[in-house]
Design goal:
The structure is a homodimer of 534-residue chains. By secondary structure, the first copy, chain A, is an alpha/beta fold. Chain A has helices spanning 28-36, 72-75, 86-89, 124-130, 150-153, 163-176, 192-203, 218-224, 243-251, 255-258, 282-294, 327-333, 370-381, 389-433, 462-481, 513-531, and strands spanning 95-96, 111-116, 132-137, 184-189, 209-213, 230-234, 236-237, 240-241, 265-268, 298-302, 347-352, 364-369, 439-440, 449-454, 483-484, 486-487, 502-507. Chain A has a 7-stranded mixed β-sheet, sandwiched between helices. Chain A has a 4-stranded antiparallel β-sheet with strand order 13-14-17-16. In chain A, strands 2-3 form a two-stranded antiparallel sheet.
Chain lengths: 534, 534
Amino acid sequence: MAPPSAVDIEGVTDTSAVVVTEPLTVNGVPVKRAKSGKLVAGVAAGTSSDFFKSTSCQFKPKSKNFEHRLTEEAASRAAPSLKGLAKYLSKPGILSLGGGLPSSEFFPFESIDIKVPQVGQFSEQETRESGVQVHAGKHDVIEDKSVFDLSIALNYAQGTGSAQMLRYVTEHTEIIHDPPYSNWQCALSVGSTSSLDMLYRMFVRRGDYVLSEEYMFATAAEALHPMGVKIAGIKMDSEGLIAEDLEETLNNWNEEERGAKKPFVLYLVPTGQNPTGATMSFERRKQVYKVAQKHDLIIFEDEPYYYLQMQPYQGPDAPQAPPPASHEEFVKALVPSFLSIDTDGRVIRLDSFSKVIAPGARVGWIVAPDHIVDKFVRLSEVSVQTASGMSQMILFKLLDETWGHGGYLDWLIHIRVEYTKRRDVLLHACEAYLPGEIASWTPPAAGMFHWIKLDWKQHPHASTKGVRGIEEEILETCIDKGVLLVPGSWFLAEKSIEPTELFLRATFASAPFDKMSEAIKRLGEAIRASFGLH
Amino acid sequence: MAPPSAVDIEGVTDTSAVVVTEPLTVNGVPVKRAKSGKLVAGVAAGTSSDFFKSTSCQFKPKSKNFEHRLTEEAASRAAPSLKGLAKYLSKPGILSLGGGLPSSEFFPFESIDIKVPQVGQFSEQETRESGVQVHAGKHDVIEDKSVFDLSIALNYAQGTGSAQMLRYVTEHTEIIHDPPYSNWQCALSVGSTSSLDMLYRMFVRRGDYVLSEEYMFATAAEALHPMGVKIAGIKMDSEGLIAEDLEETLNNWNEEERGAKKPFVLYLVPTGQNPTGATMSFERRKQVYKVAQKHDLIIFEDEPYYYLQMQPYQGPDAPQAPPPASHEEFVKALVPSFLSIDTDGRVIRLDSFSKVIAPGARVGWIVAPDHIVDKFVRLSEVSVQTASGMSQMILFKLLDETWGHGGYLDWLIHIRVEYTKRRDVLLHACEAYLPGEIASWTPPAAGMFHWIKLDWKQHPHASTKGVRGIEEEILETCIDKGVLLVPGSWFLAEKSIEPTELFLRATFASAPFDKMSEAIKRLGEAIRASFGLH
């Protein structure tokens, strides 16, 4: 007999005896929540993803242990001493003059209201017209109006984030990635830039190397240099990092020559990579994961653009392919994450609401084995503490109370369609205005960036100016013509390497359609001028 | 002829020629702002406190330079390479496909409304009844309704924080502290815990010592231990850190014995110190500053409780002294900060809205010389980025657009009066219920904490149990009687030191009045039981 699935459960009254062994789905969430009972989590309540995962997680094997990879600093960080008080607080009738939390009577906010789109009516125009006003009061929990209120959200909180938002991101993570080991957990962050800074401090030491893509997210590289950490850039193609080059680099690592031990941290942006726009195929991910297993790497899977995966590019003048017709289709259309194939627990996934809700929220989260999340939370407690409670409340009201998991996926489908439109406008402009004999590209499948390669060897002064010289000339000519793009060499992971190819990064994230086209037209003129074409 | 002051300017139409040489006041702010013209600061606008200080700052000498104190990591941190694009963006008509900022059309928020107290009607009850609804729209700037809107606040921002909130904290800092050197600046933080973590990483190295109070804010100590940094605890009395002991410690520093160079970072909570509740007098601050000058220290002035300075304690059953009658009186009633006497620029002040607005905002700021703030911002850019834009918007709407600087001071006076009430309830209970022959204290002048000393030598097993043994017994007896306080030894800066005195920390920040009294009654019973009194 097949084990009962979440879907089977509908109509069952006493769910407490039901052990769900199927992965969590959007429809399974209400069932799971009903089974756990109402969420009770007051000011600075201790919490953990373990409370919010479906029982199916228990049937998976435990991850390997990666504590030996922690820096001395991270390994030695213990729980705050004042947490020692917590065990006494459960005593019935105890009066505490212990913790130094301010009283909510001194928070000068009676309520926060947000106006947000209804599911399915997501545009700015529709939001203005049919958006719903959602209310968060100061004492909604006592008044039984919500499980989260301002008296909780505006006070101090644990380093995990609030139970209310932790529940949401834990469920979301299980729905999308269903990590294949049992002891995964999430913790909120103040955004992935901060997560990355914290993870670097947890895993790398002065003098170490970190492995990454040869063209790399500039901030991720610039965070490392002052820490005295070097980067070994791994070759890329249109599917991102090349597994064979990673393997070769590690197989041939010469400690003496490099002056450093063989690295074990691999930093990756697998989807819609910044700056190259490359998205690793599922096959490529499996190859890279295999190398990571062989050389015992930890993968920092930084995925701000994961939900900016677009519809397949249909070519010039072709209409957009029809969007996913259901949540299941949408989830299936996403390239599987490293987390979803991570049987060992060697992937630390960095997630963020920045690109899909709003960067100003400064809310993200990480997913990793419990012993790693635990150390991340320890570091949060003595540094960022956790994400803004105002942001957490606003996201909770939108994502949990208004949209739910299904509505959020609908929003992500909306974003997918809109970014596809933007990309297509840019690509059509490139096809129309750029000289095909010089400029080439792979249509980006995800993210915000289009990576244009110029055949610099056709430049009249190729032999004297070299890649960097021509790149500089192109940048200046672009400025003259009134368009700004970022030169590819600015993103080189190893600054000292002389690039053999010339790229320009263009974003289609923000400019209005007509300006994007005009910008590419100017780029075409700049290239022609620089290369002496007519 | 005296130079024109801010007050003189009222009625002057063309203020552009007026150079203000008086320190900024609450009433001077509108004049100063009118002179600068409307604040224009869009998405991720570059900004600096220099734009928001009054011209009087220019007449002060420059600070000394403390860059030689920076760690190798902090010193080598440069501006992000993509900032190199900024210089091109000013070119008229340029179309940018450069920066990767998402379009605000994908932020699913039409507006945020907050209900907040009117000035002078600050209680929860009054806020419910007469609070005002304040509105933040997505495109308020274009629609000329505000200088800050959601399309800006919800996007990425600079490491300084938004220009809008930076202006407010800069003005506030000048009104309250008027730092005596010209090149001071502010930068927003995600709260002082994070500021401190960042400052530690900017100034201390593994193996270093940091100087601090012998009883120390636990998190500030626990952040240091895993970094391999030791703490030299300086003796305290009821006015906090003792300047003579600081001087002696530094004069007699034996590098060989300590295995470390003479420390130069002094971490202090000068006002309402956690855990001792001690507030340093102005005289004491000047003494400590003098030692800091002599030994070339940098002072981390961590001041979360600065505005929890209370009315002078009037004794048992006495009514509260009348509150400050004006903003000027209120500001004068505050003990001057280290920042306000910092002619050298050796003070880095950590400020926060956590204790006076709401901890969940996760918004604070630092004040320091420009070359230090610059490095703090560099670190922010590759880590926390800056405070939540949602929090910044909500604080801006409350503090800048609704209350203004004057209304905020009125709120702080309200808090002052309310905390005085709370403290007095606790003190009256202590006077009523604690055995005077065992328990003694200094009435706290600021903060959230009451520090109760027990004469442990009167304990029947004093000689066998020692301080720690009796402390443990008291804690257990307290739990038995149903009250929780924190044992003083948990806060020792140097964990290995055997304490010679026994303290308990009680907070009056959060419990209702009747529960506070009942808790202290139970404490009295616990002490009597433990000490064998009747």
